[in-house]
Structures are given as structure tokens and as C-alpha cells.
Design brief:
- By secondary structure, this protein is α/β, with parallel strands linked by helices.
- The protein has two domains: 161 residues, NAD(P)-binding Rossmann-like Domain (Rossmann fold); 116 residues, N-(1-d-carboxylethyl)-l-norvaline Dehydrogenase, domain 2 (Orthogonal Bundle), CATH 1.10.1040.10.
- 50% of the residues lie in helices and 13% in strands.
- A six-stranded parallel beta sheet has the order 3-2-1-4-5-6. It has a three-stranded mixed beta sheet with strand order 7-8-9.
- The longest helix has 29 residues.
- The radius of gyration is 21 Å and the shape is globular.
């Protein structure tokens, strides 16, 4: 059923997600802090421009947000100009930002006071997944609200799953980022090892991607890593933001994630070299790729 919805935050992820909602026939009202981005979006898609998060949310049955961090989530949801101020009881606020579990529980509590449902729903799949409508969405919150929101979220997702109560979507995303960090570092080291051993790295990828070493990162990033191409994809700056949230959560639970901490420091090195906006696969730039000894040397 077509609905009146709002989408707050039209960055590299939010803009294509909102586009899928418009293409699905929903009545979409958009807000973005930088107005020109919203105006560009409206040049390509059907919708209405709102001057504030509150005005975007007014009259909407579902309000979606995809912004930068905890402070941004609070800025667009709370206060007199925040979405919650204009939402009616019985409506649903869905936050796709990768943020902390603490802020998810905080916003859930504030929403519940006005009988508004809140779902923390971070996504995985990157810009390509947002553009193709094939994101994975991990959700925390009330099951009834999830059942109402899931068919609408499906416009830009291939997988949507309720993980538990408030904050569990964010905790699941943290587990996702832990796994990705280790995978990319392992892939970087494997590729450099293949080069140093005098092997054709592309041939190595072609063979081992058919076996147990296969991963999304290998399928989508190995060849660009070999070619030294990093001006695309999920930025190192954003990965470090995510890992900071993850490591803080782990410490609060008495966990020392040694590999994740190490990879986070490696990403700090990439940032120091001016690679903050490079794709996360740029971890390979830390490794010395000079020299090509032959097999057996």
C-alpha cells in the first residue's frame, strides 16, 4: 500500500534509498541539511522539499533517517525542529544511520513517550547496494512496528530482519563491521603475498574465490585493490567512526577485540596519508608492494 513517508538525509546512501521509495509510488517528502542536495534529488525524482525534519515528518506514517553519527541522529529527531515533534502517535520512525546502541535506546524511549514506534535499522551493502536496492537491513525494535515497516523498507533491500529489541540492529551492525575489518586486512595481506611470491594476483583471486577464501570483499574489491583504485565506496573516515562505536561497546562489555583494534590503527595510518575518503579496501596501501621475487625464492 502506498504511503506518505519522509526521508531525512540525502547522502550517498540516503539519496538512492529515498529514490527507491519514490519509484515504488510512495508520496515522499525529503529534508537534507544542505538544501542544494535535496533540490538536486527533486530534479530527478518525484517528491516534496521540506525546510526542517519536523516539517518533513508532519503527516507521514513512516519517517526514515540516514545521517552521520549519534549527534546527527539527535539533531534530526529531537527538539522543536526534530521529526518526533511533528509525528503523530501510531507512526514509525526508522533510523538507518550507523550509530551507537545507546542512542538507539535513547530515541526509542523518547519516541515511546509520544506513542511513536522507533526502529534502529542500520544497513550493509554500501553505495552500490543502496543504488541497486539490494541492501541488508538489520533492525532493532518492536515486532509490530517492524511488520508494518518491512514492506516499505523492502523497496531498497534484499534482506530485512528483526534482530531483537531497541539497539539490537546497531549491535548487529557492529558485528558486521568487526568481520569486514578483519576480512579486508586478510585480503590485503594475501594479495601482497601473492605478488611477492611472483604469482599472477588476478589468477590467484580467480582460483581462491571459488573456495573457502571467497568473500564479498574478494568478489567486489580484490581486483581494484590490485589496480590501486580506491576513489569510490565506503570511506575510511566512516569506517573509523563505526569502529570507534564498536570498540567502545566492546569495552563496555569487557571485551578486547585485538584484531579490530589493530585494523583501526591501520586505518588511522591510511587517514594520515590523506586517504580518509578512500574506500576501506585501501588498507593494502600500507603494505610494501615493491619487489617481485620468483616462486621458491
Amino acid at each position: 500500500m502506498k504511503q506518505k513517508v519522509a526521508f531525512i538525509g540525502l547522502g550517498v546512501m540516503g539519496a538512492p534509498m529515498a529514490a527507491h521509495l519514490a519509484n515504488a509510488g510512495h508520496d515522499v517528502r525529503v529534508y537534507n541539511r544542505t538544501r542544494s542536495k535535496a533540490e538536486r534529488w527533486l530534479g530527478d525524482h518525484a517528491g516534496t522539499l521540506a525546510p526542517s525534519p519536523a516539517s518533513a515528518a508532519e503527516g507521514a506514517s513512516l519517517v526514515f533517517a540516514c545521517v552521520g553519527n549519534d549527534d546527527d541522529v539527535r539533531a534530526v529527531t529531537t527538539g522543536p525542529d526534530g521529526a518526533l515533534a511533528a509525528m503523530d502517535g501510531g507512526t514509525i520512525l526508522v533510523d538507518h544511520t550507523t550509530a551507537s546502541a545507546a542512542v538507539a535506546r535513547e530515541i526509542h524511549s523518547q519516541a515511546a513517550a509520544s506513542e511513536i514506534a522507533f526502529l534502529d535499522a542500520p544497513v550493509s551493502g554500501g553505495q552500490a547496494g543502496a543504488e541497486s536496492g539490494t541492501l541488508t537491513v538489520m533492525v532493532g525494535g518492536d515486532s509490530q512496528a517492524f511488520e508494518r515497516a518491512e514492506p516499505v523498507i523492502a523497496a531498497y533491500a534484499k534482506s530485512v530482519r528483526l534482530m531483537g529489541g531497541p539497539g539490537t540492529g546497531q549491535l548487529t551492525k557492529m558485528a558486521n563491521q568487526i568481520c569486514i575489518a578483519g576480512l579486508i586486512q586478510g585480503l590485503a595481506e594475501g594479495l601482497v603475498f601473492a605478488e611477492r611470491a611472483g604469482l599472477d594476483a588476478r589468477a590467484v583471486v580467480d582460483v581462491i574465490s571459488k573456495g573457502a577464501a571467497q568473500s564479498w570483499q574478494m568478489d567486489h574489491r580484490a581486483l581494484t585493490m590490485i589496480d590501486g583504485e580506491f576513489e569510490f565506496g565506503f570511506a575510511v573516515d566512516w569506517m573509523r567512526k563505526d569502529l570507534a562505536i564498536t570498540l567502545a561497546e566492546a569495552r563496555s562489555r569487557g571485551l578486547e577485540l585485538e584484531v579490530t583494534q589493530l585494523v583501526d590503527r591501520f586505518y588511522a595510518e591510511v587517514q594520515s596519508r590523506g586517504g580518509g575518503r578512500w574506500d576501506t579496501s585501501s588498507l593494502i596501501t600500507r603494505l610494501d608492494r615493491s619487489g617481485s621475487p620468483g616462486p621458491g625464492d
